[in-house]
Amino acid sequence: MFSIAETDIAPEELRQQMFDPGAGGFCVFEGWVRNVNEGKQVKRLEYEVYEPLAIAEGEKVMAEAQQRFPHLKVYCVHRSGLLEIGDCAVWVAVASAHRDEAFKACRYIIDEIKVRLPIWKKEHYVDGDSGWVNCERCASVAHQHSAGA
Amino acid sequence: MKKITIRYFAMFRENAGVSEEVLDMDVATALDVFEQTRSRHGSSEPIGHCKVAVNDVMADWSASISDGDTVLLFPPVAGG
Questions:
Q1: CATH code of residue A7
Q2: Does residue A136 have a pLDDT over 70?
């Protein structure tokens, strides 16, 4: 399941929902807001999300991950709105019988989400400036997936 | 001419100064809409990693545009 959260993501609570008696491996990725990007001191972040399509595309990514790396449970939530340094921006978790599928599915989901979902990140800097982030590096990672790497 | 609703997001919205507008346009494809709105609002953003959706479905730039369609213009995304 994929969802968008307008308020704090609570990893500990979400983790409880991931338990599955058949799972021997659990992999989670948390994306955090950091205080620097490309040499600029970041004060806070703002995510703009076009929810109808973000959710539809997010569900599609997760269905693809299930096909490529079959697993037992998966959950992903992405924040919208204003976030402070250290806040959790995205949480991806996969429970599977063995670790390999959990690692691979988790990696696939976060990489695809970064480049495919209609989500935009605006950084507000300590110096009062602000700017939209253009994630070129993320795009190259997605290209590696599509090339079968 | 076709009546097209255009929705702008993130930097496109800030550049256009509006989140949505309805225009009478002489367009065949989603690419035509992108290019005409770009010159209308003086944007220099290359098509590069931009994306488009038509009537809330992700589409290719070659997608046909009909009278009454809503075209959503997405600047480069940066989730995560």
A1: 3.90.1170.40
A2: no
Domain of residue A142, residue span: 2-146
Q: Which amino acid is at A126?
A: V
Contacts of A32 in chain B (CB under 8 A): none
Residue B79 belongs to a domain = no
Cα A99–chain centre separation: 19
**A81 CB near a chain B CB, below 8 Å?**
no
Mutation target for A interface from B13, B15, B57, B77: give the one with most A CBs within 10 A. Answer: B77
pLDDT tens figures, A23-42 = 999 999 999 999 999 899 99
pLDDT tens digits, residue range A117-131?
A: 999 999 999 999 999
The answer on pLDDT for A145 being more than 90 is: no
Residues 6+ apart with CB under 8 A from A110: A29, A31, A90, A92, B80
Distances (CA, A) of A108 to A85, A103, A105, B43: 25, 9, 5, 33
Least Cα distance to B80 among A55, A92, A132, A53 occurs for A92
Report how many Cβ contacts below 8 Å link chain A to chain B.
69
Residue ranges making up the domain that contains B25:
2-74
Q: Which of B53, B72, B77 sits opposite A120 (nearest CB)?
A: B77
B46 → chain A, closest CA residue? A134
Assign residue B32 the CATH number of its domain: 3.10.20.30
Q: Which of B10, B58, B80 sits opposite A53 (nearest CB)?
A: B58
Encode pLDDT of B7-55 as tens digits: 999 999 999 999 999 999 999 999 999 999 999 998 888 898 899 999 9
